[in-house]
What we know:
Layout: H1 8-21, H2 25-30, H3 39-48, H4 53-64, H5 69-72, E1 76-81, E2 87-93, E3 101-105, E4 108-109, H6 113-118, E5 132-136, H7 139-148, E6 152-154, H8 162-168, E7 173-176, H9 182-197, E8 203-206, H10 221-226
Amino acid sequence: MVKVVYNDNLNKNLEELGKRRELKLQTLQDVGALIFKTRGELKQFLKDNPQFKEYLGWLHQDMNKGKYTFNMLGKNIMPSYLSDGTVYFYILYFPNKEMKYRNVYLGETVDDVEGKKTKMYGLDLLDYTQDKVYVVEGVFDRVRMVEEGYNTVSILGTSITPYQLKVLKRFKEVNLCFDSDKSGGIGMESAKKLLIKEGYTGRIRGRTPNFGSGDSTVKDVDDLFRKGYTEIKFE
């Protein structure tokens, strides 16, 4: 688990997010979530967490010039860590905006081909000693699954890449929990075929429609657990 020092201001910001998303403060801390409402909060964070200067220092410098103030202040920042705790990129979440997410990698958006091939969210808490891995689409799907105790990684979409396949093939069972919509269904079928094509011999399970809840309003695993359902049902 990545070690992050949270002060009272950051915890207050995360508590507000937790109330909106019905998530525990501890869960948000476990995944390393950050919300800075002022430049002073970011400056204090870098003082408390010098290991982040390499990754957030450039942003703080640009913010002082006013360049990134809109993109960062008040936004949900979900760092994507590698298994060794290194920050790979940041997911900036814009609630209620047309552009919902922006991925930022050391000052640049992750739009290059290699970045898209390798990015995953959740490698830091992924437990390779377990037999099962659960695969979700979204950022908060992964956070919800962490809270519920599932060994989970998000592929940030429905298209699975060769790098992501290598990660998933390390487990004896792959449970695909893509969103309960048309693109999620297509993505699951594609993921199954790619795993088999790559020589995966373990068990592959796909979620049932609306995760077996019988509730058509359940669109993803975050919905499922927020609505009080306690189990994901698979085919």
